[in-house]
Design goal:
mainly alpha; two-stranded antiparallel sheet; 49% helix; disordered N terminus
Length: 321
């Protein structure tokens, strides 16, 4: 209460057995109505008037809250729209095409996708053609690729038969590597070969688990590589005709500058996964959790403004040639 004086008059006929008693207390000068009272006779109409005004005020508050909610939804939509432009623009706003997406909170939204340059279309089409090729152990080309991977992994060792216990040393689950590809397809084998050729030092260190304090039950190298290929395909939305995820749209910009952007990103992802594995002190049963955190980190780095190619990724510095 302030230092100014307030006179508060109680209109009860009897308070504590004493009739017509006045009570004075400190308060605001401008307050003339009682803080607590039972209105009698002549005051009844004034009471009803105040109740009507209170109801009207409540209705006004509800209306204001309703419009504030709608306004906040509009702001959210505009923010998302701007984000799609920033992260999805191939060059400037003039290259975007509006497509209708789903709804959020009952309000339809627009997702703006960039139109592709002829070079982007050509490289995306070629990459998607690679994705459609399953691994076929009966094809000589695929057998030769598997043999090439062995020679790159173990330069001084004799090449084993295509079905041998020795393949388990590389991280295949069985004696026949062809049974491990499943959804990864032939491109996952191409990714491993690219990694071994382009970044041999990092490839060897991961293959032989030379960095950090390793778990007793380590992830199998080759099978982990297949999982990373599959994770990237999903993250970049490459199995749809035209990527519509923010990561996929951003990747198309990298693909325009580097036709091997997917393979280079694969190498970054593999090295990043191993770093996450060591940081979490993970073991075999936690591999999926590590893969999820790797994907999240890749998506964060994809959104960085100064990333225009895979070599600009902060995690690219982890790779050694």
């Amino acid at each position: 209460m302030t230092s100014r004086t307030l006179r508060r008059r109680l209109h009860h006929e009897d308070v504590g057995g004493r009739g017509n008693e006045r009570l004075e207390s400190s308060g605001y000068d401008g307050l003339s109505e009682p803080l607590l009272a039972n209105y009698q006779d002549g005051d009844q109409s004034r009471s009803e008037g105040h109740r009507a005004e209170d109801l009207w005020d409540d209705e006004e508050k509800k209306a204001r809250l309703h419009w504030m909610f709608i306004f906040s939804q509009l702001i959210t939509q505009w923010a998302q729209w701007l984000a799609n432009i920033v992260f999805g623009s191939g060059s400037l706003i003039g290259r975007i095409l509006p497509l209708t997406s789903g709804t959020q909170n009952g309000i339809s939204q627009k997702v703006f996708l960039p139109s592709l340059t002829p070079l982007q279309e050509e490289r995306l089409r070629y990459l998607q053609q690679r994705l459609e090729v399953p691994f076929d152990g009966s094809q000589v080309e695929h057998q030769d690729a598997l043999k090439q991977l062995w020679r790159l992994a173990y330069p001084g060792r004799e090449l084993p038969p295509l079905k041998s216990e020795l393949w388990k040393e590389m991280g295949w689950q069985g004696t026949d590597p062809s049974t491990d590809f499943r959804g990864g397809g032939f491109i996952s084998l191409e990714n491993l070969i690219f990694f071994a050729k382009k970044y041999p030092d990092s490839f060897q260190r991961l293959l032989h688990k030379q960095d950090g304090t390793r778990a007793e039950w380590e992830y199998p190298f080759a099978v982990a590589g297949i999982n990373i290929s599959f994770m990237l395909i999903q993250m970049l939305d490459l199995q749809s005709g035209k990527p519509s995820s923010s990561a996929g749209i951003r990747f198309l910009e990298l693909l325009e500058k580097d036709e091997m952007a997917f393979d280079n990103l694969y190498c970054v992802a593999f090295r990043m996964m191993d770093a996450q594995w060591l940081a979490k002190r993970a073991s075999y049963m936690e591999f999926n959790d590590v893969l999820k955190s790797t994907r999240a980190q890749l998506e964060r780095e994809l959104k960085l403004e100064d990333v225009s190619c895979v070599q600009d990724f902060p995690a690219y510095n982890l790779l050694r040639r």
